[in-house]
Write a structure and sequence with these properties.
Helix 2 (about 40-60) runs antiparallel to helix 5 (about 95-110) and helix 5 (about 95-110) packs antiparallel against helix 6. A hairpin with an 8-residue loop joins strand 1 and strand 2 (about 75). With about 160 residues, this protein is mainly alpha-helical. Helices cover about 50% and strands about 5% of the residues. It has a two-stranded antiparallel sheet. The protein has a two-stranded antiparallel ribbon with strand order 3-4. The protein has one domain (about 5-155). It comes from Clitoria ternatea (Butterfly pea). Keywords: Membrane, Transmembrane, Transmembrane helix.
């Protein structure tokens, strides 16, 4: 079965950490701004670092996987411990593929950095450093499609060690 855990975690973090939707760190006039639907290069950098930290913790340290059913979101260490296979899992090296692909897509698809689809008054705007609820929705759908293709259809894996 396909492992939807990295796709689901990446998608949820994309929605939660998109600059300007829930919060923007740093803001334009204050340290933190909430729901301003604007972004900046510094905010995308900080949010990308936060995204990288959270995705590493959830996928590499906790090893969340989602394979058999939606409600089977169990850290793989517990899953393998219950099956008596923990020693085999601990010897395998970490798969950095979902982390690298999702961080790159997070940066490239952050609304307003490279492009904003749809833009205010236009279909697409390049480098506008602004966003809207509709453009966040469209970018989230594009992110979900691309992360699903890369991780499940193509099966990108990057192993360390």
């Amino acid at each position: 079965m396909s492992d939807w855990g990295p796709v689901f975690v990446s998608w949820v973090l994309f929605v939660l950490l998109t600059p300007g939707l829930l919060f923007q760190l740093p803001g334009r006039s204050r340290c933190v701004e909430f729901g301003n639907f604007q972004t900046s290069g510094a905010a995308i950098l900080i949010h990308s670092l936060l995204y990288f930290a959270f995705i590493c913790v959830l996928l590499l340290a906790i090893k969340l996987h989602l394979s058999e059913s939606f409600f089977n979101l169990v850290p793989i260490n517990v899953h393998h411990w219950l099956k008596g296979e923990l020693q085999v899992q601990c010897r395998m090296s970490a798969d950095w593929g979902p982390v690298v692909i999702s961080v790159v897509l997070f940066v490239l698809l952050s609304p307003g950095l490279l492009f904003q689809l749809p833009a205010k008054g236009r279909v697409v705007a390049f480098g506008s450093m602004q966003t809207s609820g509709l453009s966040i929705l469209v970018h989230t759908i594009i992110f979900f499609g691309l992360i699903t293709i890369f991780l499940l259809a193509i099966g990108v894996h990057i192993y360390s060690g």
